[in-house]
Amino acid sequence: MKIGITLGDPAGIGPEIILKALPRIKNLKHILIFGSKNILKKTACDLHILDHYKIIEDNIIDCVDNLKFQYAKPTEKTARISMQSIDAALQYDLDILITTPIVKDVIRGIIPDFIGHTEYLAHFFHVKNFGMLGLAREKRILLLTTHIPLRNIFKIITAKAIAQKIALLYWSLKKYFGIKKPCIGVCSLNPHAFEFSLGEEKKIKKGMVMVANKGITVLGPFPGDSIFNRTFDGFLAIYHDQAMIYLKSKKDGLNFTLGLPIVRLTPLYGAALDIAGRNMAEVSGFLIAIREGIKIFKNARRYEKKNV
User: Is residue 308 very low, low, confident or very high in pLDDT (cuts 50, 70, 90)?
Assistant: First the structure.
């Protein structure tokens, strides 16, 4: 089992998280950190945790440019560092990839069409059927749409799109979470579901019927303001904030990218530029991401052996 860790943007909390979290792991022999010994050592010195750096030094693969940087001030140069780290990790035959925060709007200065990790990784692996699955305790919430303007969501809601995402979630719940017969709940788009709908809920329902006819247990659509109080093995949310408001209200939420040939997870927080370089970053979510990644990878292996 090979686990890769990306550096993130050096101006953010990525290096700090790595330095504070990884020394807590008993066995580091399977972990590779794609970044820079100089950047991580400088961060460790600035945060007065040089002893942490010494523990993980042998796990660091130098694969990015060296540069001078300032905390909380990302630049195109720090953006290049974060992308070099990702690209280097993708050249290895990894089983699990844990990513640390990047600054997407700065990356767009060098990659104008950059959306995020999810889309970048899907493009690299030539995967078209993929998704962003938010995890928080026992809740697993897949997004129909991710980082797009709200006004564009209406064009994407089709019966076919709904059916494809439900099928992806159903398969993923079986493979990655060991659930034999998943039951899925689907969000409505509009308040009170059909009461204020302009036809969107009919399209959602049609997509649900398509997969139900193939044997998938799916219920809804239920209003987004209360659906996550219900008990389902997985949920389909229609747009980003519908899921993320719930997920980010919980401690240590994770983002798991479905559809890739590797297991990719990241904690649900950003580069946190307001606290970068101040030794204030919380690392519990990062540690949970590693543990959950290992569990998901093992579940996938078991599933594949049974379904050869």
Answer: confident
